[in-house]
Specification:
Elements (H helix, E strand, L loop, with lengths): L1 H12 L36 H7 L16 H27 L6 H23 L16 H20 L8 H29 L29 H17 L2 H30 L1 H8 L10
Length: about 300
C-alpha cells in the first residue's frame, strides 16, 4: 500500500505531457537554411556531411550572370579588360608619338578617350544603379550603328589628315594649340558632368527614355541637376565636340555638332513629354528654372 502511495505521489509531481507531438529521434543539430538557384530548399544533409559543406561554400548565382546573358560576368570582365588595355596602350602610344613630334599622336589619344568613356558608363552604372548594370551599359552597341560609324569616320579623318598632310594648317599654329587645349577641357568637363549626373540620379537614371513611371522614380533636382535638367546630355554633347577639337577634325567637328544637336533636340522633346506626364506641375516648374546647356535647345 505504501508503494502505491509513493508511485501516485511521483506521478502527480511529474510535469504535464506536452500537447504537441514531440519526435523521439530528434537530431542533435538543425541544418541551416541554404537557398539554391533551382528554387529547392529541401536540405536533408547534416552539417558534417561533405555535401553540406560543399553546398554552403557555393555563392548564389543569378541566371543573368551566366555566359551570353544580359549580366554575363564573363562578358563584363572581358570588356573591362579590353577597354583597360586600349586605354593604357593608346596613352603610351600617344605620349611616344607626341615626344617625337609626330602629328599622329591625336589618333591614339582619341581611342583612349573613347575607352575611358565606355568603361565609366558601365562602372558608374554598376556602382550607383546596380540593377541596370548589364553588358549593354558599356554602350558599345546600345546606340546603334550610326554611333560607331561616327567614331570610325572621326578616327579615319584624324589619321588621313595627319598622315597625308602632316604640315597642313587649318588655323595659325598658336590658335590651333589653343583649340586642342579647349577640346581637352571640353572632354574633361563633359565626362565629369555626365558621370556626376549618373551618380546623383542613381536608380532614377536610365540609358533609355522611360515611357512609364516606375515604382520609386523621383524627380532629381539637386547637384548638377540644379543647373542643368539634362546634365548627361549636356555632358555628352560637349564631350563629343571636345574630342573632335583634340583630333583636329574640321569636317567631323561640324558633323558631330549637327548630328548631336538633332539627336538631343528630338530626344529631349520626347522625354520631357513623359516627364510632364509623370510629375506634372513639379516638372514644369523645374523646367522653367533650369536650362539644357546645348545651344538653341530651350
Amino acid at each position: 500500500m505504501a508503494d502505491q502511495e509513493i508511485a501516485a505521489a511521483a506521478a502527480a509531481a511529474a510535469p504535464a505531457t506536452p500537447s504537441i507531438s514531440w519526435p523521439i529521434n530528434r537530431p542533435a543539430e538543425r541544418t541551416a537554411y541554404i537557398p539554391v538557384a533551382n528554387g529547392s530548399n529541401n536540405n536533408t544533409t547534416t552539417p558534417t556531411d561533405p555535401a553540406f559543406q560543399h553546398q554552403r561554400n557555393q555563392p548564389f548565382l543569378h541566371p543573368d550572370n551566366l555566359p551570353s546573358q544580359p549580366k554575363s560576368l564573363a562578358a563584363i570582365s572581358q570588356l573591362s579588360f579590353l577597354l583597360g588595355l586600349v586605354l593604357g596602350a593608346s596613352l603610351l602610344l600617344s605620349a611616344h608619338l607626341l615626344t617625337h613630334s609626330n602629328p599622329l599622336w591625336r589618333a591614339p589619344l582619341f581611342l583612349a578617350i573613347l575607352a575611358l568613356f565606355h568603361f565609366l558608363e558601365y562602372f558608374v552604372t554598376a556602382r550607383y544603379n546596380t540593377r541596370h548594370a548589364t553588358v549593354s551599359a558599356f554602350l558599345l552597341s546600345q546606340n546603334g550603328p550610326a554611333y560607331n560609324i561616327a567614331h570610325t569616320l572621326a578616327l579615319t579623318e584624324c589619321l588621313l589628315t595627319n598622315y597625308c598632310f602632316p604640315h597642313r594648317a587649318w588655323l595659325p599654329p598658336r590658335l590651333g594649340g589653343y583649340l586642342v587645349g579647349v577640346g581637352g577641357l571640353l572632354v574633361v568637363l563633359g565626362q565629369a558632368v555626365r558621370s556626376a549626373a549618373m551618380r546623383q540620379a542613381g536608380t532614377n537614371f536610365n540609358h533609355k527614355v522611360q515611357v512609364r513611371k516606375s515604382e520609386g522614380h523621383v524627380l532629381v533636382t539637386g547637384g548638377v541637376y540644379a543647373w542643368f535638367r539634362h546634365p548627361s546630355y549636356f555632358g555628352f554633347f560637349w564631350w563629343g565636340l571636345g574630342t573632335q577639337l583634340v583630333c583636329g577634325n574640321a569636317v567631323c567637328f561640324v558633323g558631330y555638332a549637327v548630328v548631336l544637336w538633332m539627336f538631343f533636340h528630338h530626344r529631349i522633346g520626347k522625354e520631357e513629354e513623359f516627364l510632364v506626364e509623370f510629375f506634372g506641375k513639379e516638372y514644369e516648374e523645374y523646367r522653367a528654372r533650369t536650362r539644357v546647356g546645348i545651344p538653341f535647345i530651350a
